[in-house]
Design brief:
This protein has 3 domains: 116 residues, no CATH class; 55 residues, Beta Barrel (Thrombin, subunit H), CATH 2.40.10; 80 residues, Rod shape-determining protein MreC, domain 2 (Thrombin, subunit H). Helix content is 38%, strand content 30%. The protein has 2 helices and 12 strands; from the N terminus they run H-H-E-E-E-E-E-E-E-E-E-E-E-E. Strand 6 and strand 7 form a beta hairpin.
Length: 283
C-alpha cells in the first residue's frame, strides 16, 4: 500500500514539473519582443508550452463542465419538485371542490323534492350507515321516532322511489330498499300510455343492470319504450305517482299470455346519500 502511495505521489510530482516548465516556456515566449520574428527553436518552445498547457488543462475543464451540469440538473430537479408539490395541492383542492359541489347538488335536489310533494309532510334525512354485505338491501338514516318517523313510510330521493321504513328507533331508522332481492310484498305499478295506464307488479330487481321486472300485464296494448313507470297508490305504503323508472324492453312470459316489461330504475342505488321520508298526508 505504501509503494502505491509513493507511485501516486511521484506521478503528481511529474505533472507539476511539466506544468511549471510549460509555464516557464510561455512566460519566456511572451517576454520576447512582439515585433521580432521568432527563431525555429523559439517557435517550437512556444508551441510545445501552449500544447502542454492545453493538454493539462483539458481534464480540469471537463470536470468543471460536469460539475456545472450536475448543479444545473439539481436546480431543475428542485424546481420540478416545487411545481409537482403545487400541482398535487391543486389536484386536492379541485377534488375537494368537486365533492362539495356534488354534495350541494344532492342537497338542492332533495330540497326541490319537498315542493313537488306538496300533499305530503316531507322529512329530509341523510344515510349514515350502509352494510357492504347488504348493499342493495337496506340503509340506515339519521331520523327516527323523535322526527315523527314510523314503519312503512315511503322513502324517496329527487329521482324516484327508494324504499320504505321497516325499523325505527328514537334517532335512527332502517330503510328497506326497492332493490332488495327479498321483496315480501310485490309493488303495484302503472305504466303511462298516452292518457291511460296499464297495471302490473314489480317481481324482481337486477343489480347488475339496475333494472326491475314488471309482470302481470295482460292488456293487449303496445307499450312504448321510455314510458314512465310509477306507483299506483294501492295499499297503505306507497302513495300514487312515485316514479319507479322508464320502460326499457317488452317481452312475453313463458306461456305467451301476458307481457313482461324490463324497467330502467330512476334511482342509482350505488349513489344515494340524501333521502326524503314521506310522513303523512296533510289534512
Amino acid at each position: 500500500m505504501f509503494n502505491k502511495k509513493k507511485q501516486f505521489d511521484k506521478r503528481y510530482l511529474l505533472i507539476l514539473i511539466i506544468v511549471v516548465i510549460a509555464l516557464a516556456l510561455v512566460v519566456l515566449a511572451v517576454s520576447l519582443k512582439k515585433d521580432r520574428n521568432l527563431s525555429l527553436p523559439e517557435r517550437i518552445i512556444k508551441d510545445s508550452g501552449i500544447t502542454v498547457l492545453r493538454v493539462v488543462n483539458t481534464p480540469f475543464k471537463v470536470i468543471k463542465n460536469k460539475l456545472d451540469d450536475i448543479h444545473k440538473k439539481n436546480n431543475i430537479y428542485k424546481k420540478y419538485e416545487k411545481i409537482k408539490k403545487k400541482t398535487d395541492e391543486m389536484d386536492k383542492v379541485k377534488a375537494a371542490n368537486k365533492n362539495l359541489e356534488n354534495e350541494v347538488k344532492k342537497l338542492k335536489d332533495a330540497l326541490k323534492l319537498n315542493t313537488v310533494l306538496s300533499n305530503k309532510v316531507a322529512c329530509n334525512a341523510t344515510i349514515v350507515s350502509r352494510n357492504v354485505g347488504y348493499w342493495y338491501e337496506e340503509v340506515t338514516i339519521d331520523k327516527g321516532k323523535k322526527d315523527g318517523i314510523s314503519k312503512n313510510m315511503a322513502v324517496v330521493n329527487s329521482n324516484g322511489l327508494i324504499g320504505r321504513i321497516i325499523k325505527v328507533s328514537n334517532h335512527y331508522s332502517t330503510v328497506k330498499l326497492l332493490s332488495n332481492d327479498n321483496m315480501d310484498n310485490k309493488i303495484s305499478v302503472k305504466i303511462a300510455i298516452n292518457e291511460d295506464f296499464v297495471y302490473g307488479l314489480i317481481s324482481n330487481y337486477d343489480s347488475k343492470t339496475n333494472t326491475y321486472t314488471v309482470e302481470g300485464i295482460s292488456q293487449n296494448v303496445d307499450i312504448p319504450e321510455g314510458a314512465d313507470v310509477v306507483t299506483t297508490g294501492m295499499g297503505t305504503t306507497f302513495p300514487s305517482g312515485l316514479l319507479i323508472g322508464k320502460v326499457k324492453k317488452i317481452t312475453k312470459d313463458n306461456f305467451d299470455l301476458s307481457k313482461v316489461v324490463e324497467v330502467n330504475s330512476a334511482v342509482n342505488f350505488d349513489d344515494i346519500d340524501y333521502v326524503t321520508v314521506l310522513k303523512r298526508e296533510v289534512k
